[in-house]
Design a protein that fits this description.
- Part of the binding-protein-dependent transport system for D-xylose. Probably responsible for the translocation of the substrate across the membrane.
- Its main location: membrane.
- GO terms for molecular function: transmembrane transporter activity.
- This protein has 393 residues and is mainly α.
- It has one domain: ABC transporter involved in vitamin B12 uptake, BtuC (Orthogonal Bundle).
- The protein is 77% helix and 1% strand.
- It has helices at residues 3-13, 15-34, 42-67, 75-92, 97-122, 126-145, 155-162, 176-202, 210-233, 239-257, 259-269, 271-276, 281-307, 318-328, 340-359, 364-390, and strands at 164-165, 237-238.
- It has a two-stranded antiparallel sheet with strand order 1-2.
Length: 393
């Protein structure tokens, strides 16, 4: 099979996944041109990581929720509530910063248990439970804060979202440590990709040709190292990026390799078949929402650290950004399909579009229209693929 034929086969077999990567490259290229290169400048690349990290964290949890056939409309309010709890303890009560972090995580667990109970064991649809949660947790945020904003956090807490690791290995005009971490990431990706390809060959499954495989790895390596180089020229490696990387790797393994992950896909793909196969549907659904609560609290910690305080309106509309990232990243509306990496790419597409339009000085109302249209087109693309696969018009 020639490289061209291999490319055509892979694109036709995995159009949803392939299309999102192509779209991401096109959008980055477009806004790089429209902003005269400012989009990919070292300072702006760093700002992209800092400004949108909490949306990407929410998208990791949301993709699992959506794969399981649910939706969560409350995560923005949970971000606000967990940040408020942390702020009251650390800023008002003068407790150590790590107490605020632990309290925020405990609040996220409690929220997940609450919503998981109603969805899994009472049987109320997640849309209704989390819609109620959106109102409940926003109201609790107002009560906790007393309708006022609290700031500032101590320097240690601020470093969670705004700290950097740099200068550890030196460098003239760039940070060597950041480049080293990027190189380690590239090596890990290459090894994992080769093992995945070998495993597919072992079971007689189709794979891309070796030249195409090498080209894909080289392109990914070039993008990652260019990204790391721009970070190294600015302020070094953001601490929040390390946190995000661990979450992406960990949850990719959970969704693809663990029994829990396979059960989530089974429930979202065909609930009746999952029940007949012995999947403990209630327990899996319960833990899906507990997990979402924990990740929403992590996002709340990062956001409050980034904003250096807690506000009653914090997290407003975050749930829509997270949901949009997941659907743009290739998840199916009906559940059973989606990946953590796809959600991250979808989130980065939203981030690049928002950041690019801000750099161009486009009005906020126009930005909202564009983002809404992108979400609509992503879902329409999913519906089109389903109809084509089933032979319907």
């Amino acid at each position: 099979m020639t490289a061209i034929a291999s490319v055509r086969e892979l694109l036709s077999r995995n159009m949803r996944t392939s299309g999102i990567y192509i779209a991401f490259v096109v959008i980055v290229g477009l806004f790089t041109i429209l902003t005269n290169g400012v989009l990919l400048s070292p300072g702006n690349v760093t700002n992209l990581v800092l400004q949108y990290s909490y949306i990407l964290i929410l998208a990791i949890g949301m993709v699992i929720v959506i794969i399981g056939g649910h939706i969560d409309l409350s995560v923005g309010s949970v971000v606000a509530l967990t940040g408020a709890v942390s702020a009251v303890l650390v800023i008002q009560q003068g407790m150590p910063w790590w107490i605020g972090v632990l309290a925020a995580l405990a609040t996220g667990v409690a929220v997940g248990v609450w919503q998981g109970f109603w969805v899994a064991y009472v049987g109320i649809p997640a849309f209704i439970v989390t819609l109620a949660g959106m109102l409940i947790f926003r109201g609790l945020t107002l009560l906790v804060l007393g309708n006022i904003s609290l700031s500032p956090f101590p320097a240690q807490y601020q470093r969670i979202a705004s700290g950097f690791l740099n200068g550890l290995l030196g460098g003239q005009g760039f940070d060597v440590f950041t480049l080293l971490i990027g190189a380690i990431g590239v090596a890990g990706y290459a090894v994992n990709s080769f093992r995945h390809r070998s495993a597919r060959l072992k079971y007689k499954q189709p794979v891309e040709s070796m030249p195409l495989f090498v080209l894909k790895v080289v392109l990914v390596a070039a993008v990652v190292m260019a990204f790391a180089f721009q970070l190294s020229r600015s302020r070094g490696l953001p601490i929040v990026l390390i946190l995000l990387a661990f979450l992406i790797i960990g949850y990719s393994l959970v969704t693809q390799k663990s029994i829990f992950g396979r059960h989530v896909y089974a429930i979202g793909g065909n609930l009746n078949a999952a029940q007949l196969s012995g999947v403990k549907v209630r327990a899996v659904n319960f833990w899906i929402f507990v997990n979402m609560g924990v990740l929403a609290s992590v996002a709340g910690i990062v956001y409050s650290s980034r904003s250096n305080g807690a506000q009653p309106a914090a997290g407003n509309m975050f749930e829509l950004d997270a949901i949009a990232a997941v659907f743009i990243g290739g998840a199916a509306v009906t559940g059973g399909i989606g990946t953590v990496v796809g959600a991250m790419v979808g989130g980065m597409i939203m981030a690049v579009m928002s950041n690019g339009m801000q750099l161009m000085g486009i009005d906020q109302s126009v930005q909202a229209v564009v983002r809404g249209l992108v979400l609509l087109l992503a879902v329409a693309f999913d519906v089109y693929n389903k109809r084509r696969a089933s032979g319907l018009r």
